[in-house]
Amino acid sequence: MLKVTDLRFAYSRRSAPVLRGVSFELADGEVGIVLGRNGSGKTTLFSNILGINSPDSGSIEFDGADLTKMPRRERAKLIAYVPQDIRFGALSVFDSVLMGRVARFGLTAGEEDREQTRRVLDEVGLAALAERTVTELSGGERQKVAIARALAQEPRLLVLDEPTGNLDIENERLILEEARKLARSRNIGVLSSLHDLNRALGFGDRFFFIKEGVVKYDCRREDVTADMINDVFGGRVRMVEFEGEKIILDEKKKI
Amino acid sequence: MREEARSRRLKRAAVIAILAALVVVLGFACLFAGSSGMTVRECFAAFAKKGTAAQNRIIWNIRVPRVLAAIIAGAGLSVSGLVMQTSLSNSMASPSTLGVSNAAVFGANLSLIAFAGGYLNGGHNASDFTFGANPFATSAVAFAFALLSVLLILGLCRIRSFSPGVVVLAGIAMGSVWTAGTTIMQFYATDVGLSAAVIWSFGDLGRATYTNDLIMLAVVAVGSVFFILMSWRYNALLSGDAAARTMGVNVDRLRFFSMLLASMITAVCVSFLGIIGFVGIICPHTIKKLIGQDHRFSTPASLLAGSLLLLISDTFARSVGHGSALPVGAITTLLGAPFFVAVILAGRRDG
């Protein structure tokens, strides 16, 4: 279980703090969605959890262990990341995924690492592309490689920053369903940001609304209201129920 | 898929094997080519130390250390370029991005103009500047300044944890300061001192001695072992700093030691041989085009490609110069640049 308590962070002493006391918890097997306006600090929150930046104060714990004091390699065995801007060197898909295990194998990959890599490639449906060079793939395929790489780390928590940015509507659905399935089957936590609120409502179990550097609302899917969204995003939306699903609409639009 | 895997592996193996074979063959060919008029048979005899005393000396005292210097320095400069490019995430980075070469030139100028020329010998006797006098002292001063420059920049990086972009800019600034110092010194130099200093800065493998080779070998070997061991971490770094960190790579430490070792290799090579530019750009980029960026393969291939380029360039430099070899630094660029452009334009596949 991930437990973030009163997390504070500013990029420099002179700049305004981005996180001003963020607290929340995410259980294993749960999908948590972080929502907030552009620049509200979603990526900053992730980078603190991942150890790319270190918090000014507050604590980040996983199963009671303090992540901020954990050596990088140990942390990499617990948490994996799919960044918003995905970059790869000109390596094969197989090697790019195998690379995710570097924290586990250190200097050279062993047979166990290759076996795990093959398994993950099968799982996300990339086996057929294993020997292609990543830089030749489409944006959506690269996104899948990044997810496969994160899974190869065998993490207990998967952090996804806008995982559907490069994907068409069908791939978007597939990736999110895959992530949800993984959360259940591997019993790992998934923490993700998502622009599309309707997608988010279909994908997440828990919702963390960030406003002014704190988690202003923290609720389960069934408790999300249009008021929360309007407060955090400053827009005017309404929520309707359609065949048991919550759908968010712009106020002026009609069905 | 199987086919692709096999052809990829085959290509990598073929490129590395061919490069290795070429280095060996050309290494020997260089031993046997030169202006002394020895036949191949005589060369073989001399190589086995069964020729005349003079022939033995030409092979063992002049050509062998020179060929070794080409192999070692070429490999070192090339692999340093590769590592600098990856660790700074900048394809324009080169072994001397931190201003090492400029600092070494400054040191050499100081030694040749201020010490040897200005104070010790009065600077009016050309023979005082022949490299036979005490080339080791000049190299030592050059190396001291190169080292100073590297430590200054890396020290700053350590204190303020610079981003790669800032490191590159700081390196350019640092290099410019050394060059400005060199210019001022050269302005006040005597004609003889000036020409000695300018000629020193031309890369020349003829200066190599066994001692130089051994020192270069030690530094290049230590660096290369580190670079090869870190292959997977460099691969991770190709995905960007943030991604590499979340894969458990200590990016700051890796970058620090990579820059330190690459710059040390460059400092040693430049201090002993003068400036041999462009090897660190041409070779790694050509290799990346040919077999991709995977450091497990691009590192050994870059080592070999550097040796090969310097061997070819030196052979060329010695054979067109009519007795006096042309500066090999100019030849590497002259031969390498058109080839490089051709490589870039030819295959736009492997990024």
Task: Provide tags for this entry.
heterodimer, A: 255 residues, alpha/beta, Rossmann fold, six-stranded mixed beta sheet, four-stranded antiparallel beta sheet, 9 helices, 12 strands, 33% helix, 27% strand, globular, B: 351 residues, mainly alpha, ABC transporter involved in vitamin B12 uptake, BtuC, 14 helices, 77% helix
Q: What separation lies between the terminal Cα atoms of chain B?
A: 21 Å
> What's the CATH H-level homologous superfamily of chain B?
ABC transporter involved in vitamin B12 uptake, BtuC
Counting structural domains of chain B, the number is 1
Characterize the biggest β-sheet of chain B: none
Note the beta-strand portion of chain B: under 5%
Q: Give the CATH H-level superfamily of chain A.
A: P-loop containing nucleotide triphosphate hydrolases
Q: Which CATH class of chain B applies here?
A: Mainly Alpha
Order of helices and strands of chain B: HHHHHHHHHHHHHH
At CATH level 3, the topology of chain A is: Rossmann fold
Counted by DSSP, the helix tally of chain B is 14
Helix fraction of chain B?
A: over 70%
Task: Indicate the multimeric state.
Answer: heterodimer
Q: What does it look like?
A:
- The complex is a heterodimer of chains A (255) and B (351).
- By secondary structure, chain A is of the alpha/beta class.
- Chain B is an all-alpha fold and 351 residues long.
- Chain B has a single domain, classed as ABC transporter involved in vitamin B12 uptake, BtuC (Orthogonal Bundle), CATH 1.10.3470.
- Helices cover 77% and strands 0% of the residues of chain B.
- The longest helix of chain B has 35 residues.
- The radius of gyration of chain B is 21 Å and the shape is globular.
- Chain B starts with a helix and ends in a 5-residue tail after the last helix.
- Classes of the chains: A alpha/beta (255), B mainly alpha (351).
- At the A-B interface, helix 2, strand 6, helix 3 and helix 4 of A face helix 1, helix 9 and helix 10 of B.
